[in-house]
């Protein structure tokens, strides 16, 4: 039984028990994904990228394992140089930076004109 089969079994059992079980199951899965416990690095994005409520819970819990407290955005992005195995290339960091700049522009770049 592969890691995905185990995950599906655990997820199904957890989801049938109610909301608190969903959060607990998400915390367990996020921890396993973060520590690559019976998962390959390529599995992480597959599980976090699904468009359903459980995957969103898992993603929220997964992000809690990273601590960027007190860091500026550029310091956080330099995380790559200290942890080269997290993002496969400097191009990945560049792509992430550009995406964040575009999102920031979309969020804050609109000017409202009141007449």
Automatic annotation (TrEMBL):
<dbReference type="InterPro" id="IPR000904">
    <property type="entry name" value="Sec7_dom"/>
</dbReference>
<feature type="compositionally biased region" description="Basic and acidic residues">
    <location>
        <begin position="1"/>
        <end position="12"/>
    </location>
</feature>
<feature type="region of interest" description="Disordered">
    <location>
        <begin position="1"/>
        <end position="20"/>
    </location>
</feature>
<feature type="domain" description="SEC7">
    <location>
        <begin position="2"/>
        <end position="113"/>
    </location>
</feature>
<dbReference type="Pfam" id="PF01369">
    <property type="entry name" value="Sec7"/>
</dbReference>
<dbReference type="InterPro" id="IPR023394">
    <property type="entry name" value="Sec7_C_sf"/>
</dbReference>
<dbReference type="GO" id="GO:0032012">
    <property type="term" value="P:regulation of ARF protein signal transduction"/>
</dbReference>
<protein>
    <recommendedName>
        <fullName>SEC7 domain-containing protein</fullName>
    </recommendedName>
</protein>
<dbReference type="GO" id="GO:0005085">
    <property type="term" value="F:guanyl-nucleotide exchange factor activity"/>
</dbReference>
<dbReference type="InterPro" id="IPR035999">
    <property type="entry name" value="Sec7_dom_sf"/>
</dbReference>
